[in-house]
Design a protein that fits this description.
The protein is built from 24 helices and 17 strands. By secondary structure, the protein is α/β, with parallel strands linked by helices. It folds into four domains: 140 residues, 5' to 3' exonuclease, C-terminal subdomain (DNA polymerase, domain 1, Orthogonal Bundle), CATH 1.10.150; 90 residues, Beta Polymerase, domain 2 (2-Layer Sandwich); 75 residues, 2-Layer Sandwich (Beta Polymerase, domain 3); 236 residues, Metal-dependent hydrolases (TIM Barrel), CATH 3.20.20. The protein binds 2'-deoxyguanosine-5'-triphosphate, calcium ion (2 copies) and zinc ion.
Length: 567
């Protein structure tokens, strides 16, 4: 509302009142909606006057605010993105809207490239040039890093920061610690009694482009490609409280603070305090004691999303969430026969180095012609080769004869059943016809699940993180059918897929479906992507028993009927 008021030329005093009010509500230690429902007088909160209190109540109770709706009609809300471009304020944004119909970043770029902005009175070629340059910053800042991209930066920062003698302890909090699939900014937390030295050291990190803000205990910078990194320095006695607070999520913290309040305590980033005597710290040095005070076990960061972690049922899983060391095999990977970079033998050697007991070779089927997908003849030949390699081994490692078989646009399987029957492991995928209507895509996947030759569905929703949405599929029908037919659903560990996602994985496991976590490796180094699948599985509350490839090789053979005469 403040942004829209500013765009519409409202006076500065009123705009500031809304900005201050928004900040006051954002910083509250409880949900403003709950306060309003409980009949609390919001004007007792610093920064909220009677007008704001009244409007907040209307917004919370009815779900909308007439004044806001009216403003949204007068001023396109996307103008706010334009205001984020350094050097473009509300006045410039509004003039470009009125005179050039520029209403978002894309139309701003087009207007600049057509030279229209330069010809506006009071703008000129120089302004237009600087807008174009600064736009890239605004566009990139809006992007989130995938978890593997974040890891590259984390590793460099970790090495660099631990070189500073004043740093006693360091950890990464925020969405990174929660293992979210994308990261908006990095939050570094440091223990030190010499804030100045830590911040000076941080300021000299080679990739820093700009310092956004610097205070006594915190500092925000932009590094290469406009990514933001926040640093906070805390005292040892507040470490746990700060780590807990800055790990979030905000929703988790709001819930936790509510529980503390009901027990007469107050939690903030410095510690847990007696609500009646805030000089009395009850805990703060470690996270465990904070959770213990509200009567709950320590919550693994991956689960801190206020999606059930406060319930006893979920808490029983906390102690036994899946870990990378539980994984015994990998049932989806490619070789030089199609679009992989390594041979079967090379994949086997790399898998052994990583402590695996079995892998499935699942090259593409012929429909994926770009990857030189295998037809029946080439598949059978590859399986003969696998038999040979298995025959020569000491029996401790098993290669499953597999295939990633396309589900064709018309629902048929790309490989004939007579051939599929001879495989140890068939995982079915959709790569073509992803834009078909919901009904059709769902039927294709259900058809594959009903085929007795098929064991699993790979990357079941087809999404590519930040690049392509999931296809339109009735996933509950897929989960139900997988359960009925005893089939497996994949959690593809590739950080640009992570498909199933956390929420869908929870749904599959809750329905009693066993999942399989695979790397879909196209090169030996990709076998290391398994850890991202594990993180996503932990976010879904998954324990080893929920996952097929935690089984030792003997159990896996029995489960899949490998080497049994009847198959
Ligand atoms: P991101 O960076 O968008 O991927 O997500 P987060 O969760 O890392 O969010 P971020 O970096 O804004 O803040 C880190 C954590 O700090 C967040 O999860 C909870 C806490 N936090 C930050 N700002 C606030 C705030 O204004 N109010 C509350 N209650 N918590 C906050
Ligand atoms: Ca963050
Ligand atoms: Ca942050
Ligand atoms: Zn694949």
């Amino acid at each position: 509302m403040a942004d829209l008021l500013e765009l519409s030329g409202e006076n500065a005093f009123r705009i500031r009142a809304y900005r201050n009010g928004a900040k006051a509500i954002r910083d509250l230690h409880e949900s403003v909606a709950e306060l309003i429902h409980a009949g609390t007088d919001l004007t007792t909160i610093d920064g909220i006057g009677s007008t704001l209190a009244e409007k907040s109540a209307v917004l919370v109770k009815s779900g909308n605010l007439p004044q806001l709706d009216k403003l949204r009609k007068e001023v396109p809300p996307t103008l706010r993105d334009i205001m984020q471009v350094p050097g473009v304020g509300a006045k410039k944004a509004m003039r470009m809207f009125q005179e050039l119909q520029v209403f978002d970043l894309a139309s701003l770029r087009a207007a600049c490239e057509a030279g229209q902005v330069a010809s506006l009175k009071g703008f000129g070629a120089k302004t237009q040039q600087s807008i174009l340059q600064n736009m890239q910053i605004a566009e990139k800042a809006a992007q989130r890093l995938t978890i593997d991209q974040a890891d590259l930066l984390v590793e460099r920062l970790q090495n660099y920061m631990t070189n500073c003698n004043a740093v006693q302890r360091l950890d990464f909090a925020g969405s990174y610690r929660r293992g979210k699939e994308t990261i908006g900014d990095l939050d570094i937390l440091v223990i030190s009694d010499d804030n100045e030295s830590v911040m000076n050291h941080f300021a000299s990190f080679s990739s820093i482009q700009e310092t956004i803000a610097r205070g006594d205990t915190k500092m925000s910078v932009r590094v290469t490609d406009s990514f933001q990194v926040d640093l906070r320095v805390v005292a040892e006695k507040s470490w746990g409280a700060a780590l807990q607070y800055f790990t979030g999520s905000k929703e988790h913290n709001v819930h936790l603070r509510g529980l503390a309040k009901a027990k007469g305590m107050k939690i903030n980033e410095y510690g847990v305090f007696d609500a009646n005597d805030e000089t009395k710290a009850l805990a703060g040095a470690d996270e465990e004691s904070i959770y213990a005070l509200v009567g709950m076990p320590w919550v693994p960061p991956e689960l801190r999303e206020d999606r059930g972690e406060f319930e006893a049922v979920m808490q029983r899983r906390f102690q036994s969430l899946i870990q990378l060391s539980n994984i015994r095999g990998d049932l989806h990977m490619h070789t030089v026969a199609t679009d992989g970079e390594n041979t079967i033998e090379e994949m086997v050697a790399a898998a052994k180095v990583r402590g695996l007991e079995y892998i499935a070779i699942t090259d593409h089927s012929k429909r994926v012609s770009m990857a030189r997908g295998l037809d029946e003849t080439r598949l059978l030949k590859q399986w003969e080769e696998i038999d040979l390699i298995n025959g020569k081994s000491d029996g401790k490692f098993l290669i499953l004869k597999g295939v990633e078989c396309d589900i064709l646009e018309d629902g048929r399987m790309d490989i004939a059943d007579g051939c599929l029957e001879q495989a140890d492991w068939v995982t079915a995928s959709i790569h073509y016809g992803q834009r078909q209507p919901r009904e059709q895509i769902t039927q294709r996947i259900l058809g594959a699940l009903e085929n007795p030759c098929v064991h699993a569905i790979s990357h079941p929703t087809g999404r590519l993180i930040s690049r392509r949405d999931a296809y339109d599929v009735d996933l509950s029908a897929v989960i139900e059918s997988a359960k009925t037919h005893g089939k497996y659903l994949e959690l593809n560990a590739n950080p640009s897929r992570l498909d199933l996602n956390d929420i869908n994985t929870t749904a599959a496991v809750a329905a009693g479906v066993t999942i399989v976590i695979n790397t879909d490796a196209h090169a030996i180094s990709n076998l290391d992507l398994m850890k991202y699948g594990i993180t996503q599985a932990r976010r879904a509350g998954v324990v080893p028993d929920d996952v097929l490839n935690t089984l030792p090789v003997g159990d896996l053979k029995r489960r899949l009927g490998i080497g049994m005469p009847s198959r």
